[in-house]
Every structure is written in structure tokens, then in C-alpha cells.
Amino acid sequence: MKTTNEINGSQLFFIIFQTQVGVGVLSLPYSLYAKAGADGWITLLITGVAIQLIIFMLYFLSQRFPTLTLYEYAPKIVGKYVAFVISILYIAFAIATAVIVLELFETTIKTWILFRTPMLAILLLLTVSGCYLALGKIKVMGRFYQFVSILILPLVIMAAYTLKDADIRYILPIGQSGVGTILKATQQGIVSMLGFEIVLFVYPYVQNKGKSALKSLTLANIAVTSLYTFLTFATYVFFSPVQLQMIPEPIVYMLKGVSFVIVDRVDLLFLSIWIVSVMTSYVSYLYIAGRGIQHITKRKKATWPILIAAIIALTFSMFSHDRYTVEMISGYHAKASYFFALGFPLILLCFSLIFKKKEEL
Amino acid sequence: MKKILNQLIIYSMSVLLMTGCWDQELLKESKLIFGIGYDYENNNEIRTTFTVRNLGIPVSQGGSYSNRIISTVGSSPRDTRLNMDRIISKQVTSSKLQLLLLGNEVAQQNIEHIFDIMYRDPKSPLDARVAVVDGRAEDMFKIDQIEDTLVTEFMANLIKGAENKTEAPRMTVEKTFRYSHDVGQDYALPYLRYSEEQGSPKIDGLALFHHLKYTGINLPPMDGTLLMLMSNQKSKKANIVEDLGENSNKGYLTGSVTINVRNAKSDIAYSFHNNKLTKAVINLDIKGNIEEYPQNHLFKESQVKGIADELSEKLTKRGNAVLAKLQEANCDYLGIGRDLNAYHHEAWHPKEWDKEFSGLTLEANVKVEISETGIIK
User: Fold this and answer.
1) Any CB–CB contact under 8 A between B148 and chain A?
2) Interface of chain A toward chain B, CB-CB under 8 angstroms
3) What domains does chain A contain, in order, with CATH numbers?
4) Mean pLDDT of A300-318
5) What average pLDDT does range A42-59 have in this prediction?
6) What mean pLDDT comes out for the span A187-216?
7) A113–B341 C-beta distance less than 8 A
8) Which residues pair with B263 in a beta bridge?
9) Which candidate from A112, A118, A172 shows the least CB-CB separation from B343?
């Protein structure tokens, strides 16, 4: 059987879903609480709506050039030179995201599980397995994402189990922080739910384009929004308010107190599953960066470009970092990500509409 | 061929990355702490008593369980742990800790000082039980063994037993963390006392806490049960023994009746004045079975109802006494503050809650219903 280079609707769904679910999920309840208080989980619902709007925009842009990736159609809209700059920026952004994923992964693993293991070993774990996956065809990636998505189920069950100790009064009254604050915190939510922009790079490989692709995108957004809202909600009813200000990774902390007869440390189980989700996000960004490098260097195969992207990401993530520097860097990255998930695609869409640039089929 | 070679390289590289080498912790090379007790020493120092399990010959091969009890002094719990590491030969880990005891004196200081290492360490056991000891925790652990049972296990089982009988709430390190930082809700820990008569520790009610400090006020076991019923915390079992007084003890030593609570539902009614809570009435409905009533046989329904009414009256009185004690201790065990925040937000003033709570009118209203009388009438 020959593996084609096409993905079907459900694989598109899982690619978007797994790219979105990633390293941010652990600290999301904490960072949302800092912004919106006990109403942080409502913020996430609103974020879901906001992301849906962005997804529509990305979809319309991709639909104008159904067989091309962003790297390929950008020159047709804004000309060779500007497109070159945009491509470089996207590559840099994807590598920067990969670096942040690696760094957050490393600090989390180091603080929670492997205290004495050298940094390089932990980073290589992710890099080697990630490269191996990214080097394959997009279909392989899609199938793998689809396959590992079953792991989300135990994750949800574990979080649901803690609801037996929940106190709903911690989040009541709903809306106590005020509409303004809740809306303002949406920024925080969008940052942690980034990843949908990968659609700009995988859309040409989708078998059934058009409405059914949009359906996959929407479903992925709904799935991510509900998963994040649920996990955040579970921590908000579990911890008393002051605790949420103290615990940077509430979900893991919450599961640390749970123990069964056979499994004593449920948090380790959770983190092991979480690693897979981190890996998939990492692979997606490696893919974006690799494809970009392949395009601007006009190579036939993406093997070396992806390896080069991985090596650059690994080198940068090797710089010594602690919790606070990582937080600072991801703060800058969050601001930049608006341009890449929203700004540039919107500009490209506007230009292509104004100058009536469209792929001739 | 090239593909196979590539795969081989990747596989062999991943073998090199097996991480067990750095972070392995072998059981045979470590010692497990099962119980920790904290006491206050003079000069602002803390004495920590550790019970460390000796893992010698397994019991199945004729060995026996034994503890080593080590007590060290230091400026903080971590300091005492480091001091203990200097005494003990192997690597010590507290990840299997079962019981954490606070001496009476140390509990009246800020307990955050003690618990910080528990909250901060990723390997700390959040589900270890916490209790307060009458006197010093050190003395409890020094008992070492009660017949065949090691004292740590004995006390941990005592506490778990009390949890099942609704005599103590399930207070683990995690729960203590949760409530000790909550403005709107306080908590209580099981209180252990050394019984001279039995030569072993026993559960002696609840120690009431306010925020991070033990208030020094206790509730006896039966009142603890009533308090837990009032806050809807009935566990597997709950018993209430009550003396019905003179009209039923003709010819008997006492006029007591024991009921087994099948169902308890509590509900708090609040009254407000000018956006301020003035009164809270705790309505507790208990449905139970008679477990012991030697004085009379209950042939008629009216007799059962008579007992139920009398019980209601007595328990209401007792409930009011419990509430008065809560107010004296300023321990908002029922989470009235949380209720206010959640359901009557305009009347919630977190900064003045301490003062408001002790000035409240709290009233208990217990209603008992008896449905069964065992297998005789």
C-alpha cells in the first residue's frame, strides 16, 4: 500500500487539535486566573469564539489558493521580495515556538519528574522522536496525531475524578470579575490555544477541501475549547482562590494528591500523556519551519530543512534558562504570535481581495 | 538499505537516552519515612520526629516490621531533615509518608512554616493524613509499637477509622493547604490524645483551626460528628448517643439512646440586614435507626416519634453549643463565608469577615426522624 500525501477530514481535525493542545495547558489555569480571577474559564469560551472568527479568515485565505501553502502563494499576492521576508519571519516564528515548547517541556520535566537528568538528554528525547515524525509524509503525521488522540481520554477522566472533591462555590458568583476583565483576559487564552495557524501550511494536502474542511477546523476548535475549559474549570473548583495564585501548574498539582491502590502518583501518569501532546505541537512547528526552509532554498526534499530547523531549535533551547526567563521569553513570543496567527494572514487576505489575486484552477 | 541504516541510528540513539540512569531511586538504597511529628522547642526551634521504616528481612520470610525513631532539632522542617540525613546511612525519602502530627504548641504557631516543604516538593505525599496531638508529637512516636502494630500505622488507621465513622473529616496535606489559605472557610483536624488507661493513642475529637493557626479549642467526638453532619459531610457511618434524661431512665443506669444516622441533610438559611449577614440558621434533618434503647419497647409509632422529638430537642441544644464553640474559636467550619461569596455576594466583606463571624447569631435546628428500630420493636 502506498501512502499518499493527502490527509482526510479527520486527520486535519487531529492535526489542528494536537497542534493546539500542547505545552500551554499546564499553566493555562494559572495564567488565566491571574488575569480574570475565578471567571477565567468563561474567558476560554469567549476565546473559542474569537478563534473561530480567525479560523474563518484563515479558511477564506486558504480557499483562495487551495493547492498552495502560504509560502507558495505569498509571492503571488505581495510580490517576491515581501513574500521572502514574510516567509523568513514565519520560519523564525515557527522555530521560536519550537524553542519555547522545548524550554517549557524541559523546565516542567525537570521540576516534576527528572530532577537530575541533564538538560540535553531531555531535549534530545523530544527532538529525536519529533524529527523522526516530522520527516515522514504529512499523512503519517496525521495518522499519528489521530492515533495518540485517544490518550486525551484518560487525561479527561483523571481530571474528572478530582471533581469529587470539588467545591462549586469557588467559582461562584459567575461573572464576579466583570465583563471587561473577562474580555481582556481573552488575549491570554488565545496565546495558549495557538496552533490553528498550521492550517495555512497543511490545507493544500486536504482531500476534501471546502465545506468539509471548514467543518473539521470548526470541530477541532470546539474540541480544544471544551477540553481547555473543562480542565480549567476542574482546577478552579478544586483549589481555593489563594492557592491558584501560588500554584503555576494547577492540573498536575491537583492530580498529585490523587492516589489509587495501583497507581500512587497520578500526576506522573498525566505528565507522561502530556509529553505526547507536547511532542505533537513540537512536530507541527518543526514541519512549518522545515517546509519554509525547503521553499526558500528550493530543495526537493524536506529532510535537511527539517533537521536544520530542529538543530537551530535545539541550540537555542540549550541556553540556560530558569522558570522566570522562560516566562519572559514566552511573553514576547505571545505578542509576536498575534502577527503570525492573525496579522499577516489578514493582510494577505485583504491584498488578495483588493487585487483580486486568486489561484487559477 | 539506507533506510534500515537510518532507523538503526535512530534506535541506537534513543537507547542512549534512556533516562533511568540519572533519576533512578532504588527501594533497596533508600529509607522510607512513614510518620513525621513536629514540636515546638525553645529558642524558636522546631523538633522533628521521624519514624523510618527498616526494610530488613521481609515478613513473609520470618522477619518483622520495625521502626527507627529519630528526633532532630533545627530552625525549620527542612533543616531538621538535613540534620537527620547526617544521622541516617541511606538516602531518606518522605514520598510514602502516611501521617503528619503537629504538637499542640507548634500547631498554635503559623503552620505554613511546617507545611511549606510539603507543598513545595514535587515528591511530597499530598495524601498523608494530618492530625494534632495533645502534648508533644514526639512522645506519641516514642511509643514505637502497640502490641504488633507500629505506632505510625496504628494512628493512621485510627484516623481513617474516625473518618469512616464521621468523627473526623478527611484532612490530608492537600486539604489543609486548600482550607488554610481560604478566607471564607476554616477547618478542623483530628485530635489525638495519649490514653493512660489503654497505654495507646486515641482519637479525642476535633481541633478547630482558624486560617493558619490552631485555636486551642476542641470539640469532643460526638460534637464533632454533629458538626460534620451540619456541614453535609456524613461518611459511611455516623452514630449519635444521647441521654434522654430522667423520664426514661427508670430503673436503668442512664436514659441513653443510640441512633445510627442513615441520612443527614443540612441546609443553612441566612437573614440579612443592610447588606450584612445577621443570622444564620442551620437546619439539619437526620434520618436514622435506633441501635440501642433498652428502656422500653417501641410498639407504637407515637413512642418512636416521642423519642425522635426528644432527640431533636437535645440535639438542637447540643448543636447550638457546638456553634457557640465555633464562634469562640472563630472557626468558620461550615464555610458560611464561602456561601456568602457565592450566593450573597453583596453581603460578603472578606476583610471584616473575622469580626463579622464572631458577632453573628448562629442557630441550630435539628430534626430527627426515626424509621427503623432494628430487628426487634
Assistant:
1) no
2) 111-118, 121-122, 124-125, 128-129, 132, 167-170, 172-173, 176, 239-243, 246, 256-259
3) 9-354 (1.20.1740.10)
4) 89
5) 90
6) 86
7) no
8) B287
9) A172
